[in-house]
Amino acid sequence: MKRLSFLALALPVLLVACSTGDTATTRTPKGNPSAKVLVEEFADLQCPACRSAHTLVTTPLLAQYGEKIRFEFKHFPLRSVHRFALDAAEMSECAADQGKFWEFVDKAYEKQEDLSEDALAEWASEIGIDADAAGTCLKSHRKRGIVLGDYEIGRSRNVAGTPTYFVNGVLVQTGLETLGAAIDAALSGPSMPL
Description:
This protein is of the alpha+beta class. It is built from eight helices and five strands. The model is unreliable at 1-19 (pLDDT under 50).
């Protein structure tokens, strides 16, 4: 009986020790964490349309609505067409561990045409994180579960391409005006539980 009690106590510890990766992101949302309006973007860091949307939609949207919204980035790497999308997403999560998720996203879009394995390490240095730690993190693939978790959330919500935006869980056509209208409507409506 004592052996069974020991196993019952030891099993959860053993399962945690055997875990191969992180399951929760350390990235922080932009805007107001307790805002009643949640804007989510499903994006691929190697996607040219996402790069354009980052400049023409997301950045102005955040400038306009700032603390009125909670803005969350979700990974949706299109691996069949973008060779380095998954690696870039994983490295962004490694950067998040050092408080530089958004800086990495900005750098990835800025230098998207140069995306390669070597570039990921170079960008880590450029944004001021410990490149060795980030490189070790990337090579371990311990962030892959986070990235693929976002991807599965997107699939469950019928995301078919990138970028894809949701406002309080409702799909909204990509565009500054369409997202602004959806945000304004949500701001004037009842609160949404987060």
